[in-house]
Known about the structure:
The structure is a single chain. The chain has 7 helices and 15 strands. The protein has helices spanning about 85-95, 95-100, 135-140, 145-165, 225-240, 270-280, 290-314; strands at about 1-5, 10-15, 25, 30-40, 40-50, 55-60, 65-70, 75-80, 110-120, 120-125, 130-135, 170, 180, 185-190, 195. It folds into 2 domains: about 1-125, Phosphorylase Kinase, domain 1; about 130-314, Transferase(Phosphotransferase), domain 1 (Orthogonal Bundle). By secondary structure, the chain is of the alpha+beta class. The chain has a 6-stranded antiparallel beta sheet with strand order 3-4-5-6-10-9. A 3-stranded antiparallel beta sheet has the order 11-13-14.
Amino acid sequence: MIVCILGGNVMKEGMDNVWLSKGVVLQSSYQIRKKIAISELSIVYLSYDLVKRKHCIIKEYFPRKIVLRDLDHQTVVCRKSLMKEKYYQARNDFFSEYQIIKRYNHPNIAKGLDSFVTNNTGYIVLEYYQGKTLDEYIETQKEISIVKFLKQIFISLIYTVKQLHQDGIIHRDLKPTNIIVSPKGTPVIIDFGSAIYYQYQEHKKIFVTPGFSPIEYYSEKTKQGKYSDLYSLAAILYYYLTGRAPLVATNRLHEDKIEGINSLCEEISGIFGCVIMKNLAFDYHKRFNDLNAFEFFIKLECLFQTIKSKIKKI
């Protein structure tokens, strides 16, 4: 527990002081229902739109290392006055997620509904999607065939990321927990907090997820591009087919001991296994330059799996 002194008053900061309480209403419209997730930079809430009478998701900018709640349990204040400039600049960057998603009306991209500043911090309002995160879906749908997974979920992700790339955007945080699978089996990418216009971004902040992030995400100075998202997509396939994430990129720096997928999953073709491992290459020069070839081999694997299934029935 941290004790902070604000204006002569002492406020004890435990986890209950971090997120907004149930029932708090923002902008006279959005009522907080419960906390869903918390990271180093933000807090995500299930909320209810009192005007439109439907659920929504609210993402609050809350960089825990440099801020805390004031005594009203809502206003965000910097721990030190010297941090204010950094905080306000980063708050402006927080809204870049909304600027990206609001340009899309896409079935596989979370819809941005609103953004605003209050409580001395920033908020983004997103469409609420029923379903399970991809990791939960994989865990509960153990009987889903490779063909169904590739056709129903993965190819839709490929098409969506291709659209982003065509618009000069790389996602930079593609992973199972950032993808919701609806009850109808439709995948929706729900978090664009790391996304950037890669051709114009000179100083790239570091956002990593062990196993799903390529080595170039571990430094602000390295080159990042479409091949970086390719790594993450290949990692998602690796996770689906083996039940575990690939070896963390930083653990491959001196000696690359990543285990080949064909030794862990005998159901896929050797060619497809090679394609997955190629796009999990430590060196981005060894990966495909874009998603076109990757898409081709995914469709080829669907054909292979379909033929193999028919042969088994004979």
